[in-house]
Write a structure and sequence with these properties.
It is a single chain. This protein has a seven-stranded mixed sheet with strand order 4-12-11-10-7-5-6, with helices on both faces. It folds into two domains: 140 residues, Aspartate Aminotransferase, domain 1 (Alpha-Beta Complex), CATH 3.90.1150.10; 272 residues, Type I PLP-dependent aspartate aminotransferase-like (Major domain) (Aspartate Aminotransferase, domain 2, 3-Layer(aba) Sandwich), CATH 3.40.640.10. It is α/β, with parallel strands linked by helices and 450 residues long. It is globular and about 60 Å long.
Length: 450
Amino acid sequence: MNPEAPPLDNVGWLARSLAAVWHPCTQMRHHAAKGEDALPLIPICRGEGAWLYDFEGNRYLDGISSWWVNLFGHANPRINAALKSQLETLEHVMLAGFTHPPAVELAERLRALTDGVLGHAFYASDGASATEIALKMSFHYWKNRGKTQKNRFLCLSGGYHGETAGALGVTDVALFREAYAPLTRAAAIVPCPDARLASANETAADVARRAAQSLEARLAAESGSIAAFILEPLVQGAAGMVMYDPEYLRLARALCNRYQVHLICDEIAVGCGRTGTFFAHEQADIRPDLLCLSKGISGGYLPLSIVLCRDEIFQGFYDEAIVRGFLHSHSYTGNPLACRAALATLDIFAQDDVLNANRDRAHKLHAAFAPVFRHEKVRHPRQRGMILAFDVIRDDPAFPRRFYRAALENALLARPLGNTIYLMPPYILDDAEIAHLGNAVYKALTAAIT
């Protein structure tokens, strides 16, 4: 096949992709299968706004923001303009011994968004790297303080923090954890405050307080060896959009203070306005010790992750000895193009009053999904800001693939997490697109369960 004359149709690009590309989190045989075992592979030609277009002119509403990254639509003209301008100035320079305006400006603006509590931005490329950095920072901080025994970590049941070896150590999703268990150092696990666990007489806050009691017992017994407690604030993504009450964050913050354990908030998926506030932890009126950001921070344009920390942690590394410095690096750390995309993304938040606009949009999404939430096979409908989810009563391993195919047939990209259907759309949907989202999900659900 001549790469200089690529086929310009779906079939041609599909064949080339299957022959050359190893797709992530995918059993590649499913892409080659037929019937209900098949997992469609869609060649995308271009994106515009909330829509993706294939080579035959079919379009799909991007209901999951292309794995939770695209906040303001594909080919956003303002982010495009910022990147074009940056391309004419500086595409990349190493951040060891050098610096540049986009990296400085982004760090300053993120510090301001945390009211000055979290700063000293450490840049990397992806969410799992941010997790690794935060874990290493916590461990190394305690080591520099002479507390070398504080070298273990604590996480929530069902928590997901990435798929590198270190991140898998604090991930409790069996699909990811078990395959590579011999390569990881597993963290201790405490119960998740999943609001779905509430009994008939309990509220979500009651479940949060009950789970916090288990956290307190663990910290009381083992805090001398625990460096940090890591969690996804308010919504555990890969576990199936598990949602819980902010009361748990308030109690966890107080307990980590009492037992001298760092609190790491992994806001890789839930940050940047997804839950209704710019940072999810703000809904509990707390700040963590370390904050991980990625995904939406660059508007879905370029790989970028950031770890912010309290001044006390940064000062724990400030020394003449290199060995007491933070020993971690990435070749593309603080890439100017990625930082400029992030700055343009923050500009849109400020200029368009996005958080307030999203509150109205979230109400409209909830209304559009009322028929879905009333479906006889739907349980635990839930929403936190611009994240909607529900569980489907279906003991059928092929159901997720059937739903995925049916959604595509109804011009929607929606990728289930097992029997959990979720939506995390871009922040630009108009009323017609919101209606399409609700209608397409209802039709796909009906088709997939019959």
